[in-house]
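Q: Two folds, back to back.
A: First:
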Amino acid sequence: MKNFTTSLLIFLFIIGNIFAQQEKGIIGTDNWLYNWTEFSPNQEDYGEPTQILTGNITKDTRLTKRNTYLLLGSVFVKDSVTLTIEPGTVIMGDYASKASLTIARGAKIIADGQETDPIIFTSNRVVKRPGDWGGLIILGDAPTNKFGNGSVASYHSNLDSSSYPSTNFGGQNPNSNSGILRYVRIEYSGKRLKNVGYFNGLLLASVGNETILENIMVSHCAGNSFKVWGGEVNLNKAVSYKSNGNDFKFNYGTQSVLSNSLAVRSPYVSSSDGARCLQVMSYNKKEEVDFSKKSTRLIAKNLTLVNDSDDLNSDIEKGLVKEAVYVSENASLDMNKSVISGFNPAVLFEEKIIVNQENLEKIKFTDMYFNNCKGNIFVEYNSNNEDLENWYGNSAFFNVYSKSSNSETFIDLNNSKRPDFRLRINKIKASKTQYASENIIDNN
């Protein structure tokens, strides 16, 4: 009986380790990146377009998998109309006409793909490049902190007067529903616009919390992969891969949750104007917002933010690696159980942020895993971070620090078809240490 009990305990211990998972970074008993993501989309052949989408969609419309669609110019799904896209459907954005798809306020998109049959938005060029076409814009009637309503008219040149109302966003309904985006890929978007900047892979403006947004991948975008203006957005299992702009950018009073999501940056494609994995801000200019309204607040949990450098120290010396997270004045961030690996530094506060208890209680980092970063948390243009070290290094925050390569940190990030960015089992062995560069956990 004793031998049986001992054997049973050993068996349960082994099984427990096989099925265990790290609580930090992206999580899942299985690698949820399998099947629906694509990390080498330039090798994919989606065929030739068989149908054209152009102008205004003014009645309920269904796009089918048997067709491949060419998105031509600025396409709007108008108020009260639903655009349904079948799993496996391919929509190609036209390069010459700066194609984009906008779901107007009050309209819906039902793009509900499947793990083995995702919906794909991509470029129509044979040799695809970041910024080949515009991107996907969803507009809702949830609140922002802007004065009046906002507009995305600047993203659309040569609009006729009848289309201008379809570019507006904002309202008083945080529970609004703009539809479903699930198992969707957006590739090679972010077209550059004169005097405006870049389109984004996915722009969510005043989108409400009844909208379902999960398992969305934006890859090789010339602008921001995911940009959120206002609204109450819940993003789950979002992937940004080698974006030139920011991976996730939150602004204009949004009250959002970003969970179980991944950003992979490359120092060789990043924009020179300071692109980050995560940027949290409440405005671009103070005069454009109403301070009686809510400032931006983001809850970010189980994120994995990775800089994919072959030689991190060399890339840092060349100025190619920046911070992973940037927090601006009057914005709140509650980040927990996340991994930040290979940045310079991990986190940067805008210089306008005064380091005091009131502000630090609005910017939280708990249960974090900081790995192989040149410094952890700093204020912009200030190399003395002693106050921040003392604050976030308190054992009550349960943050840990490591110095190991990405290949040692993650299960299998070098697999080109099925990378696994989950933290290695039992990677974190040491107790939580005081926040300081010399206190490094054991990774052996």
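A: Second:
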Amino acid sequence: MSTGPVGVGVIGAGVISDTYIKNLTSFPDVVVHAIGDLRPEAAQAKAEEFGIVTHGGPEAVLSHPDVEIVVNLTIPVAHVEVALAAVAAGKHVWSEKPFAMDRDSGAKLLATAADAGVRLGCAPDTFLGPGLQTARRLIEKGDIGTPLTALTLMQSPGPESWHPNPAFLFQEGAGPLFDIGPYYLTALVQLFGPVGAVAGIGSTSRPTRTIGSGPLAGTEFDVTVPSHVSMIAKFESGQSSQHIFSFDSPLGRHGFVEITGTEATLALPDPNRFDGEIKLIRREGEWETVADVKALAERGTGVLDMARAIRADRPHRATGDLAHHVVDVMVSVSESVDSGAFVDVTSTVDVPEILPEDWDPSAATV
């Protein structure tokens, strides 16, 4: 078995790569060896910014002998294609969400990786942050009694005002359901277990949008998926949840997650963050802050957990199976939007173990 820090390579030098590379280069247990992009000049600029030795096209990562984990930060429509190429190269793969755009391609990726004996992981890894991990401990300890229901809300005017190239966020594989939904749905699967059935209603406020900042400001693009989705879910355990995911509201509200049990309601931190405040209210009581936790690390935490799991020969937590189940849930919601009926979710998943309370991303452990 190999020892020492785990070699990592990044494919995709877009906006999200900054926070990943910043964090990955700070973890003693991983080493970033290479960055690749279809635009080699973008990979070069990022490599020079962060002191990464090797850069170029995707092959600069796939062919690097010291890269064990490929961090796939490409656009959603390319996630499975890039992941399959990495699997073919004998690499483990961590992908940004969503894991896939449909059930079949996700299932093919899972089967191909299993045959190759490599691991798959996928964002979001925010559920590994101390915010949601602390909330899970409180619920498992019984602080709200038996969990019964969940309520979540995320609404905004949409990312086109600030994102320099937002068209893909309003097209297949994105929209508020596929872009933001994974954070909220993954958090709830950690608490309630797998989803059994869903129903959804979707709408689109306007057929085109305009980029508001950056070099493409003023450019119009088409909106091809619902920009507002309301959904309900029934979990295999019997609990239920209600959700709104919207890019249509001028009133921005996000990070709203409440879990109600037989004894109390718990307000969780924003599932798109790693830290935050946790509040609890009991019957005939008032809201009280029960925890306010700070994150030791952010995006890239799941890559680090995977790296440590590889060295320790144990399961990692943000698995491809978990991400595939969330994709199955979102595809089922989309089918319900089209059909107007409840849709059964055919996949299932085991809830990963909670992180140890002393888990420290800054420690050298391998």
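Q: And?
A: The chain has two domains: 6-122, 127-293.
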